[in-house]
Amino acid sequence: MSTLSVKPTSFWQSLSKFDWIYAVLLLAGGIFSYQRYAGFMDIYEVSFLFGAVALFSYLGWRWSAIARLVLGVAVLSLIGVYSYHGDLANGGQRFLLKFLLASQSAVMWMNVLFVLAMLTYWLALFQKSAFTAKVASALTWAATLFGFVGLMVRWYESYLIAPDVGHIPISNLYEVFILFCLITSLLYLHYEKLFNTRQLGGFVLVVINAAVGFILWYTFDRHANEIQPLVPALQSYWMKIHVPANFIGYGAFSLAAMVAGAYLLAKHGVLASRLPAPHVLDDLMYKAIAVGFAFFTIATILGAMWAAEAWGGYWSWDPKETWALIVWLNYAAWLHLRLMKGLRGTVLAWWALVGLLVTTFAFLGVNMFLSGLHSYGTL
Amino acid sequence: MKAPISLSQRVYELLSSMRFAVSLLTLLGVASIIGTVLKQNEPYTNYIVKFGQFWFELFEMLGLLDVYHAAWFLLILLFLVVSTTLCVIRNAPLMVKEWQVYKEHATEKSLRLFGHQVSLATTQPAAALQTQLSDFLSTERYTFKTRQQDNGDVLIAAKLGTHQRLGYIFTHVAIVVICFGGLLDGNLPFKVQELLGWKKIETRDISSRKVPAESRLGVDNLSFRANMTLPEGERDNVAFVRVRDGYLVQDLPFTVALKDFRIEHYATGMPKSFESDIVITDPELAKPIEATIRVNHPYTYKGIAIYQSDFQDGGSELKFKLWDLAASNQDGFDVDGVVSQKGSLGDGAQKMTVEFNEFRQFNILNLSADGKGKPHNVGPNTTLKLRNASGQAREYMSYMQPLQLDGRSYFVSGMRETVQDEFKYLRIPADDALEINGFMHLRQTLRNEQAIRDIASQVAKQMPGDNAPLKAQFEQSLQHLLVTFKQGGYSELSRIIESAVPKDQREQAAQTYLKLLNRAALQGYQMSRAQRQLPPAPETQETAMFIQDSLNAMNDLFFYGTPYYFQLKNYTLKQASGFQLTRSPGQNWVYFGSVMLVLGIFAMFYIKERRLWLLIKPAQQEVLLAMSSNRKNMDLDQDFARVQQQLTALLQATA
C-alpha cells in the first residue's frame, strides 16, 4: 500500500551502521575504563560513566556531528595521553604535546580558532557568502574539538601531578570558562543546524570570545592555568553533574542574549537584510532560554542536594545560592510573560539582554565581590 | 448591565493573577539581593563599627541583618505560595479539561477561521478516506475521536502532546511543595514561641548547663541547624543555634565525643581533607557507634545528620620567648600560654592582660613579590591580644618561623587596633643563625648610652687622617645622631634635619645621616656580637642589608604599640572540630518538589501540544485540515506545512 510511504520509520530503524559502530565504541570505552578504574570510583561515578555512554550515544545518534566530535576528541586525547608516557615533563618537550595536544596548547588552539571563527562569521555576514560561513562553522567545530581535547588531557595531567591531585577539570574559574566556551559553542552549532542559518555565528561568538579574552588574561596575568588540587568541599561526585548542568544554563542564557542583541539590531534596521527574520530570532531566543531554564533548574537542584551533603543544609542563602535564585526568578518571569501572556518582541529581547548581566554577576560577580579574597596581599 | 463583583472576588482575581505572581517574583529577587550585599548574621558589634549606631538600629529594625528570616521576607514567600496555589486552583480545571478533551464539536465555520487551515481535494469515498486518515494520525502518534455530522460530513478531532498541560500543574504544585518543605525546616515555631514570650535567646557567655529552659530547644524539636565545637578528647550532648546576637541551646538525644581530628595536606601544603573520628553514645544503644565524618560525608543518627563544618584550636599549649623591649641587656624570658586563655604581664598601672586567641599550625601564603609565585606553607602563627589596664587592646599576629621576603628572612608580626583594620606588619630581620637574637641584641646596644659613646668613639677613630678636633666633633655629632634615633627613629631624625638644615641641602644631609647611622649600627652590631662571644660579622652586602633592615625594624617598633615582643618558640597542638547538626524533615518534601519541578518544566517546554482536525466532506470531495497549538511558535508553521504536504501526497497517491 502506498500509505506506507508516509509512515515514519521507528527510531531504532533509523540508526545507521555508523551509529551502531559509534555506540559500540563508546560502550567499549566505558567498559575499558570501568575495568581499569572501578576501584577508584564510587557507585555514583560508575553510574555517571555509563550514563555518559548512553547520553553521548543518544546525542550522536540524533546529531551525527556530535558523534564525529566525540570520536575526534577521543582519538586526539588518547594520542595526547599516550604521548605523555606517564611523565608530566614530556608536556614541555615532545613536539606533539608542546605545540598541539598538551592541555595548555590545545586550549590556546581553541582560543585562536574561536577568534578566527568569529572574524570569519562576520566576514560571511558582510559578504553574504555561504561558503565563508561554512568555513566559519568548520572553524567553530575545530575550536570546540581542541577545547574538549584540552580539558580531557588536562584531566589526565592532573593525575600526573600526583594521584591525589587528579580531578575533573571543571573545578575553578579558568576551567569552567573553557567549559562555558565549549557548551555555548555546541548550543550555537545546534541551533545553526536546527534553524539552518549561519548568520548568527558572529553574534554568539562575541560572548564566547569575551570568555576567551578572560581565559587569556587569566592565563598570562594570573597564571590561573596551573592545576590546583581540590579543596575538601569540592571533592565530591556532585561536581561532575552540577557544574556542567549549570554551564548549559549559563551558555544558553548567553546565547539567548546574543540573539536578542541581533534581534534588536534588526528591529532598528541594522543588518536587517543580512539577519534571519525577526520571528525566527524571537523563536530561537525562546528556545535557548527554555533550554537554559530547564538546565539551570536542574543545576540549582543538584547544587542544593550537594549543599545538603557538604554544608549541612540544602539551602543556606549564601550569595551564590541567592544569586542563582535571582537568575532563576528572572527567567521564570520572562517565560511567564512569553508563554502565558504571549508577549513577544522588543521587550523580551531587551530583557534577555539585561538578563545576561544578572547571569554574569551570578557567575562571576559573586566570586569576585562577595567572597573572601586573600587577606595576605599587604605582606 | 454587568453583575457587581464582590470584594473577595476581586482579591481572589488579583492574588491568582499572573501580574501579581510576576510582581512577587520580582520583589523576591530584589529582596534577596539585599542579603547578598549586606553581610548577614555577623556579630552585632561588627555592624555598629561599620555603619554606626543609627544605621545599625535601622537595619536591625528592618530585619536587614537576617533578611531571609525576617518577617516581611517570609510574608513575601507566603504570598508567593498563596498566589501560586490560587493560580493552580484557578487554572487546573481548565488544564485538566484541555488535557482530556478532543474538541470534536468544532464547527466548520470556526475551523475555517484558523490561522493554519487548508482545503485538500480528494475523490476518495468517505469510508476509505476515514480509514486512511485514521492510519495516518495513528502513525503520527495522534489520538483522535471521530464524529459523524448531521450533514454527512465526518470530523476527526485529534490531539497530540496534551500531557504538556500537566507540566503547568506539576511546576506550580512543585513550587508550593518546595516552599512547604522549606517552611518545615525554618525556624517558624521558635519565632512564634518567641513572640508569645515563651522562649528567648541567650546572650550571656555562660556554660551550656546553666542556660535556662526558656533558651533551650528540646530533643523533640522538629527541625534545626545547630553547631557544636568539640576539642579532641571531649564530649557533649548539646549544640548551639545562633540567633541574631545570641544563641539557643539545642539538647541532643545522644552524646558525641571527638576521639581524633585530622587534617591531611597535599604536597603543596593545601588542606586535602578534614576528618573527625567520633563516638556516639546513647542509652538506647547496646554499644557506642564509632564513625568517621569528613567534608561531603556526614553521618546520620536518629534523623540528625552530623557534618564536618570547620575546625579551630582546642587549647593548644604555646611556649613563647618574651622580649621586654624596654630592657637594655638581657635575653628574652620564657612564657607559656594556652589558646583561648588569658595571662597577665607586669604590675600596677603597667599591668597588661594577654589573650591567646588563636594558633594556626599551617599557613599557606604566596610570598612572591609580584604575587605570581606558588603559595606554600610558611609554618605556624599565633594571634594574641594585649589589653592594658584601661581596657584598650591591640591585636598581634606573629609567625613562628622567619618568612622569606624578597630573598631575605624576617620574623613577621602584624599589629592592628581593631578587627576591621588590616594588620600592619613589622619585619624583623633574622640573623645569620636565623634567629631573632641578633636584632634584639643590636637594638639593645644601640639603646645603651655607654655603648653609644663607645660606638661613636670607635667609628671616629677609624676615620682617615689625624685632625683631632675634627674627629672629636665628628664623634660628638655621631653620638647625637644615635641618641636622636634611639629617641624617635627616622621621624625624629628628619625633624632635626628640618630644623637645622636649609631646605635645598636637606636631601643630601639626610643621605649622609643615614649612611653614618648604618656605619654606626654596624659597629654596634660587631660590639654586640663580641659581647656574646660571636665572631665579627663579615662586611658583606648581606650584613649591610641586615643592618639596614634592623634600623628599619627599630624605627617601626615605635609604632608597634607595646613594650613586649612575643616570639613563639614551641607548641603542643590540640585541635577542636566544628560540627553542624541538622534535623531537616522538609528535605524530602523539597526534593520531591524539585523532581516535580523538573518533570513539569520538561513537559512544558518539550512536549508539543498539537490539535488537528480533519473534516471529511464527501459531497464537496474535500478534506479540510486545520491545526492549532497553545503555543504560537515557528514549529507550528513547520509542522503544519509538513502535515499538509504529507496529506496532499497521500490523497493524490490514492486518488
In short:
Chain A is an all-alpha fold and 379 residues long. Helices cover 74% and strands 0% of the residues of chain A.
User: Which regions of chain B contain 5 or more consecutive residues with pLDDT less than 50?
Assistant: none
Specify Rg of chain B, calculated over alpha carbons: 41 Å
Secondary structure tally: strands of chain B:
26
Task: Give the CA-CA distance, first to last residue of chain B.
Answer: 56 Å
Describe the structure.
The complex is a heterodimer of chains A (379) and B (655). By secondary structure, chain A is mainly alpha-helical. Chain A is 74% helix and 0% strand. Chain A contains 12 helices and no strands. In chain A, α6 packs antiparallel against α7, α7 crosses α9 and α10 runs antiparallel to α11. Chain A is globular and about 60 Å long. Chain A starts with 16 loop residues before the first helix and ends in a 10-residue tail after the last helix. The N terminus and C terminus of chain A are likely disordered. Chain B is an alpha+beta fold and 655 residues long. Chain B has 5 domains: 91 residues; 108 residues, TATA-Binding Protein (2-Layer Sandwich); 134 residues, no CATH class; 121 residues, no CATH class; 97 residues, no CATH class. In chain B, 41% of the residues lie in helices and 28% in strands. Chain B is built from 15 helices and 26 strands. In chain B, strands 14, 15, 18, 19, 20, 21 and 22 form a 7-stranded antiparallel sheet that branches. A 5-stranded antiparallel sheet of chain B has the order 1-26-25-3-2, with helices on one face. In chain B, strands 4, 6, 7, 8 and 9 form a 5-stranded mixed sheet that branches. In chain B, α2 runs antiparallel to α4. Chain B is elongated and about 140 Å long. Chains A and B meet through α10 and α11 of A and α2, α6, β8, β11 and β24 of B.
